[in-house]
Every structure is written in C-alpha cells, then in structure tokens.
Design a protein that fits this description.
The chain is of the alpha/beta class and about 425 residues long. Helices cover about 35% and strands about 15% of the residues. It is an enzyme of class 2 (transferase).
C-alpha cells in the first residue's frame, strides 16, 4: 500500500465504531498466514483476536483454501430460492449432526446479526401461527446480539453501544444478568429476576434470548452453568422458547463445541456464525426444532418469511464445510485446553496489579478487566510496537486467539498485555 492509500482510507472509508472526523489509527495488512498478520512495512503481528473471534484455524489454511478454490471453479453463487446445491446440503447435514439432537432444521443467512434477526422472527412467527401473537422477548443486561435493528433491540438498552437508538427500537423486557461466576458457587437467588419476569409477563413473552455462559461484547462476563439450566427449566414450565446466541461461543471457543453443553441443555433456537467458516467468509445459521419449524410452516403465512439474497452461498458453504471438517478431526479440544492452561498461568498474577479489577479465563478466552477505560489509540500503538494484534475496548483487554497458536506466540500476547498495564497513558484519566 502507498501512503496515498492510507490518506484515502482516513478521508473516505468508515471503519467499525470509528469517527470520520477523528478516526483511530488504521494499520495496513497485506497478508496473513497461520497466526500472524503482515503489515505493509514488513513487520509481523501475532494475532490475538482471530479476526473478531472467527479465524479459529488461523489464516491461509491449505485445507480451506483448496475447498474454496475448487468451489470457485464450479460456481461462486446461485440463488437459494428453488435451488439447492451439494455444499449447502453437506453443511446442513454436518450442523444437524454436531448440534444437540432436537435441532434439525437449518436456516442459512449471511451474518451473525441476521441469524439473530431470523431467530427473533422465528419466535414471533411461531406464536402468531399458534394464534397467540406475542411481541416481546426477555433478554439479559450486558447482552450483545448484533448491530441490526432487531438484534440491537435485545442488546443491553442502557449500557451498550446501542443506547443511542432508544425510542427507535422495539421495546423488549430486560432483567439483570447473572452474578454467579462460571467457576464460583451457585446461589439460587441469581435466578430470582428471571422467575419474577416470567411470572409477571410469561403469557406475553415469545422467547428468552441470551448468550450461553459467555456474555461477549457486552462485557466478557462468564456466568454459572446452573443459571443456564434454570433458564431452560423456567422456559419449559412457562412454555417459552429459548434462543441461544452461540455466534461468539460456538465451535469450541469455551472448551465445549457449543457453550450450551456446559449446562447440558438444548435451546429451541440456536444462532451460529463467526467461526462457522473459519473466518474465511461471512455466513451464519439459525437452527431450530421440528415442532417450531412445523408450527411456523403450518401457520397463516404458510412459510417462514425471510430470504437473504446470498443465503446458502456456495463459496461460503464450501469454506464452512472445510472448517467443520478440521474440527471433526478432533484436535481442537486439546488445543483449546492448552490455551486455557497457558492463559491461566500467564494472567493469574495480574489480579494483584493496581490497574486490574478482575481476570477471567475460560477455554480460549482470556480477559483482563481494568479499573479505567483504555485509551484505544495509545494502547493499539503500543501493541503493534510489541508485535501483537490485540483490540481492547471499554475497560477490557482480552484475547481470543486462533486454536492453532503456538505457546511462544501466546506468551508474546500475554507479555504484551501485562506490560501494557504499566503505562498510565494507555488508560483514560478521571
């Protein structure tokens, strides 16, 4: 890239969560391989983000490359309306086989946010088909489900990036998020707010939606598996649907293939995305049970009313099939367990650091919660100078590396996080 390219980027290209008038620094990547990103000036960065948690097998993986190239030689895209193709059938067969048994109907879409939109529409259309129209969902504070309007409407209404849109979004019901930590003691009072909400509004609610075990972009909080079990029990008692947003947690990130497995529960609707294609292409899936699918299909509309243009894109499905075949080889549990051990060993002592309020580790996720909000630009520059790519936000400095990361590469990331804490200008003052 030329200097003029960066000037054009700064002037004309809007990056996510960035101001056009005061843009954050932007670093030009020209190639990526394994767990490293190569910048235009030639230096390499160890990637601790898996490109927003998606590139679980690293970059430029020969198996996925080959699958995409072979599919490209056949067809890059074909509409999914009235047409099917082998890659979509193979992918859906894999998803049905690897998810809990009752989840057997698959709707393919083109992003995680759209998967959540589809799940919400499924829940609403389910009750409409039953002749009991219900318009509200019950969601958790500190939850995050995406940036489109339906997904935003079930994100934390006060503490999220979407508070700006209050008054424009559908009004849903929110309760306090669970307080019992994943590895802490269980307190039955943690479910009191949920019980009260269902008792008060159960006959008007369509579904409960949550991120199982890990609340991601809303705070990187890990909660107790018993809470998830009690949610399932209470939904069953009230006849409510349970939507599990596994977009960030699915495909091994928490140490289980799906986070719901920590609690041994099955949702009525499950959203999948991010790592589905190994970070190669955008693709998502919303899965549901036969009773939910049949109820929707037998309703007044006679079908499910949704259909993205790039639904079932063959290239994306080919990448997903290749990614899932790598998971099926069975190396990921050992890889994730090794990452978890090293993160615990490397981050634990930082609990005593005066700028740290908490340290959390689960599977291939390591989180440092700081007492002050980070200075994003300053901290990003520091990490790049250290030869690592870590993207902090709010009061969180965290890692979600590719599963294939080597011990020395992970050590480099951990050391950079630790060193960053010793510089006051990396944090907002006041």
């Amino acid at each position: 890239m030329q200097p003029t390219d960066l000037d054009f980027d700064r002037r004309h290209i809007w990056h996510p969560y960035t101001s056009m008038t005061r843009p954050l620094p932007c670093y030009p990547v020209i190639s990526a391989s394994g767990c490293e990103l190569e910048l235009a000036e030639g230096c390499r960065l160890v990637d601790g983000m898996s490109s927003w948690w998606a590139a679980i097998h690293g970059y430029n993986h020969p198996h996925i490359n080959q699958a995409v190239a072979e599919q490209l030689a056949q067809m890059s895209h074909v509409m999914f309306g009235g047409i099917t193709h082998p890659q979509a059938v193979s992918l859906c067969r894999r998803l049905v086989a690897m998810t809990p048994l009752p989840l057997e109907c698959v709707f393919l879409a083109d992003s995680g946010s759209v998967a959540v939109e589809v799940a919400i529409k499924m829940a609403l259309q389910y009750w409409q088909a039953r002749g009991e129209p219900r318009r509200q969902l019950l969601s958790l504070r500190h939850g995050y489900h995406g940036d489109t309007f339906g997904a935003m409407s079930v994100c934390d209404p006060d503490n999220s990036m979407h508070s700006l849109y209050q008054g424009y979004l559908p009004a849903h019901r929110f309760i306090d998020s669970p307080q019992c930590a994943f590895d802490g003691d269980w307190d039955e009072r943690d479910v009191d707010a949920l019980e009260k909400a269902i008792l008060a509004d159960g006959d008007t609610l369509a579904a409960v939606i949550l991120e199982p075990i890990v609340q991601g972009a809303g705070g990187m909080r890990f909660y107790h598996r018993r809470y998830l079990q009690r949610v399932r029990e209470l939904c069953d008692q009230a006849g409510l649907l349970l939507i599990a947003d596994e977009i960030a947690t699915g495909f091994g990130r928490t140490g289980k293939l799906f986070a719901c497995e920590h609690a041994d529960i099955t949702p009525d609707i499950m959203c999948l995305g991010k790592a589905l294609t190994g970070g190669y292409m955008t693709l998502s899936a919303t899965m549901t049970t036969r009773p939910v699918a049949d109820t929707i299909s037998n309703g007044e509309a006679g079908c499910f009313m949704h259909g993205p243009t790039f639904m079932g894109n063959p290239l994306a499905c080919a990448a997903a099939n290749a990614s899932l075949s790598l998971l099926e080889q069975g190396n990921w549990p050992g890889q994730v367990a090794a990452i978890e051990r090293q993160l615990r060993q490397g981050l634990q002592h930082l609990r005593l650091h005066p700028r740290v309020s908490d340290v959390r580790v689960l599977g291939a996720i390591g989180v440092i919660e700081t007492r002050q909000a980070v200075n994003m630009a300053a901290l990003q520059r520091f990490f790049v100078a250290q030869g690592v790519w870590i993207r902090p936000f709010g009061r969180l400095i965290y890692l979600m590396p590719p599963y294939i990361i080597q011990a020395d590469q992970l050590s480099k990331l951990i050391n950079a996080m630790s060193d960053a804490l010793d510089h006051p200008h990396h944090f907002m003052q006041g």
